[in-house]
Amino acid sequence: MSDRFPSSLGLLARQVGYQNRLFRRTAISAFFTLAFPLIFLLLFGAIFDDIHVAPGEAVAAAQFYAPGLAVFTAVSATYTNIGITTAIYRDEGVLMRIRSTPLPRWIYMGGIVGSAVVIAVVGSLVMLAVGFGLYGLEMQADRIPAAVVTFVVGVASFSLLGLALASIAPSGQSAPALAQATILPVAFISNVFVVVPDPARWLDVAGDVFPLKPFVEAFYAAFDPFRTGSAWEPGLLLRIAAWGLLGAVVAVRQIGRASCRG
After folding, report:
1. In a domain, 47, yes or no
2. Is residue 2 part of a domain?
3. pTM confidence score
4. 185 Cβ contact partners less than 8 Å away, ≥ 6 residues apart
5. 14-59: per-residue pLDDT in tens?
């Protein structure tokens, strides 16, 4: 009986698996989500030497850029992929046709979001594993909870922002350009690729306005070799969550109308 009539959780798991298979078959999405940040990690590992902070004492350069690249991987998997995929499905009429099937629409959308979260977790773990295994990345065990909570809040918020992106994208064709235009420039001013020690004031303020920099800084706090005490950043987490709430409001108001256009 359970095989013929799967539970909601079973249906959701199947949808996540289906979306994961679609992702693996879409080479361009897999490249920019997983391979692109990994290439940066490998390049930085080849370019930058360990940083000497005192005579006979050095810190691995990966300590400063690997966490940011892991965050960028998670954001690409959620914000970018959810925004593009949902906008394309809307334009192709998929979201509209789901209404005429027995499958609840929330399960279908949950499959898209759940797949993105799985990809974000796997991709970020790969980035960190490469950092730990090849480039001397380190993290104190008592900072793991702070890193995990920060990651969960960030992934949830950027998933909601991805849904908001899909709802405001004029078309499925324009969604990739809109996604990249709103994430890549922000990444360069959010200490993802290179930490700018003394940026111009307007660049610093611009980075602080958007949610990517707080996500990077809050996650990096767990890896900061010079930090003493707690790695928790509640103020930054609140800013990330506020952006997620904004994304939810936009998505709830627009996604229904957007799906009707499909």
Report:
1. yes
2. no
3. 0.90
4. none
5. 999 999 999 988 888 889 899 999 999 999 988 887 776 666 677 8
